[in-house]
Design a protein that fits this description.
It is a single chain. This protein is of the alpha+beta class. It folds into 2 domains: about 325 residues, YVTN repeat-like/Quinoprotein amine dehydrogenase (Methylamine Dehydrogenase, Chain H, 7 Propeller); about 35 residues. Helix content is about 20%, strand content about 40%. The chain has a 4-stranded antiparallel β-sheet with strand order 1-28-27-26, with no helix packed on it. Strands 2-3-4-5 form a 4-stranded antiparallel β-sheet, with no helix packed on it. The chain has a 4-stranded antiparallel β-sheet with strand order 6-7-8-9, with no helix packed on it. α3 runs antiparallel to α4. The longest helix is centred in the N-terminal third of the chain and has 37 residues. The chain is globular, with a radius of gyration of 32 Å. It comes from Homo sapiens (Human). This is Transducin beta-like protein 2. Pfam families: WD40. Keywords: Coiled coil, Isopeptide bond, Phosphoprotein, Repeat, Signal, Ubl conjugation, WD repeat.
Amino acid sequence: MELSQMSELMGLSVLLGLLALMATAAVARGWLRAGEERSGRPACQKANGFPPDKSSGSKKQKQYQRIRKEKPQQHNFTHRLLAAALKSHSGNISCMDFSSNGKYLATCADDRTIRIWSTKDFLQREHRSMRANVELDHATLVRFSPDCRAFIVWLANGDTLRVFKMTKREDGGYTFTATPEDFPKKHKAPVIDIGIANTGKFIMTASSDTTVLIWSLKGQVLSTINTNQMNNTHAAVSPCGRFVASCGFTPDVKVWEVCFGKKGEFQEVVRAFELKGHSAAVHSFAFSNDSRRMASVSKDGTWKLWDTDVEYKKKQDPYLLKTGRFEEAAGAAPCRLALSPNAQVLALASGSSIHLYNTRRGEKEECFERVHGECIANLSFDITGRFLASCGDRAVRLFHNTPGHRAMVEEMQGHLKRASNESTRQRLQQQLTQAQETLKSLGALK
């Protein structure tokens, strides 16, 4: 072989060797870069002085993914009339109830806890709450006892009532103790509502079939009501403690009186009256604080306000006072309803939105869109009528009731024109000025 050919072969071999080395180095750099991206730090860096652990990055990544699944991002909502958001629950809140003394709000969620909130903290920066744990279950419904020293809950898995007693500790806090035995299981269908009479004489539970049960406080069934409505969608005890009402597939609301003797003994349940006037199934209804007014909302796309202060024993029917349109109720989704204590404001919820109406004029005054990340599960005014509370995810949101303040202004202005003496005018003027100043501070004075 000639010398020139040998030199060409040697040069080609060297070139091929260099190309192979360059390819190997490029692959190695790719591996190092991939390792850095997976671990979040350079591959050559030591963790805590030790060589990097190949499994630590994947373990941390799986753990981080698991935490993110367990704690979804909280739904954010802002509005100029939002007074507060209560956010201590780690699960979705299904029900809430204001105590009759106005001091507390109870909430229950699927995180196996009940929270008791102080209403005097609503406008504060921090919102205190006391926690009661539900052992091996979770509550779907909660109601305060009339003396506000106990509350009852409906257990999701146990399908029964459980009573919790509140005991004040020496440090000023409270402990919550469940009674030794739960109520016996009587319902055959899921329970949708519970209630306690403010007289302390009975408890009501209603299931999604046509059954409403009246219980003694000791867990004895006093009476079984068949509503004959094909199904129940809502049931409640009136604030006066005399009546139980339900609505469902039929276009009416049925009301019964629970009768007791002079010595407090149970006697019977009798039909009192009905709210007739809707043309389709009734979603929900509510009483005013004195039980003299009721409101209802139906799939026919209307809401109605009724005067129920009638002599029903003489077959007198309730009077229809006002009818308003609420097109959202005509859909398949359920609607929630709340009536202010003085019956001047009606709150209707469909999906995750809330609409507030003036019941005297029938006009919509406020609308809050996408209030919660889920459909609104419960809606309620506090006993003063200052706030409207809603729940539907892990938070309770409290709104200033500006339509209520406007209704107060209208009412006081009317009373002032008819006032007959100076002292009455001064008192009315003071109330009028206070309501106007509140609206001004909220930026809602018209």
